[in-house]
Predict the structure.
Amino acid sequence: SGGIVRFDGRDFRRWAPDRVRHVVRALWADDLGRVLVAAADEPLWIVRGDSLAALSGPARGPVLDWNDAALAADGTAGVLWTDRVGVRDSLGRWRVLPAAAFDSSGLERVLPWARDTLLVATRRALYAVTGGGEPCRVAGIGRVLAAKPWPDGGMIALTRGGELWRIAGDAPEVLLSGG
């Protein structure tokens, strides 16, 4: 069993249990208070206030069969499928990038980054993509699970192998080795 719980100031209650029923894999919020809910084996959901609606995809129906999803601060959504990445800008316009726009190693994860920017991790590298721009290679570090800003303007990134990297400029450095 899974789903979403809400705290109303007094009690935790299951929220929308008839619709969000499975384990939640990702939960991201934008600056406008919208929340993207990615629950296993379900469409992607958008929570706005007290309402819940399926995220409408590039083909105008609910987004299904996704592998990962993220929501950037301005509302830009990223959806990762096995063979492509969908990017929906804050106005709801979609564009779909084939996996080959990144590299041929395989798509792994999509993460929110800056205001309208998403990070896409492949098995070999990390890329940044915005609602309108082409993917830009950030670093030759693959299988990134999480990334956060670093005070110097770069970032730290955690990989599936447990390595913690500092990425600033052209020479990423390992802060902690996985093991």
Summary: The first strand starts at residue 4 and ends at 7. Residues 34 and 48 are 5 Å apart (CA to CA).
